[in-house]
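Re: zinc ion structure - here you go.
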Amino acid sequence: MSNHLSTAELAELRAQLEAKRTHLQQQIGALRTAEGANTPPEDEPSTDAPEDSGEQSVDMQAQDTERAVEADMRAQLVAVTHALAKFDTGAYGLCERCGKPIPLARLRRVPEARYDIEHQAEAEAKGRA
Ligand SMILES: [Zn+2]
């Protein structure tokens, strides 16, 4: 499994991702609490908590914003978890589209990056169409 990243760089990026994952889990937990969901605040380490969709409650606009933020954080959490899984397969740091190494500078900025810049732009264009 060849990789352009050194062991130390991989460890650094992995630590970044793990910190980010923890942070996101806490943020999502805090949001859920603020939302008044009856889930316990801190002590909920699982990321697969069931979504309580379809609740019709007051403050729709605030909720929409919170949901958008939460959805964004959940998407990030999925991306971070996905990236962490790639350390085990040796695929971390490689573009999932073309297999080219993603530059270290980019990984430091976006450690959960799945694509190199070329294919990231493509993926985003499709995702937002
Ligand atoms: Zn690519």
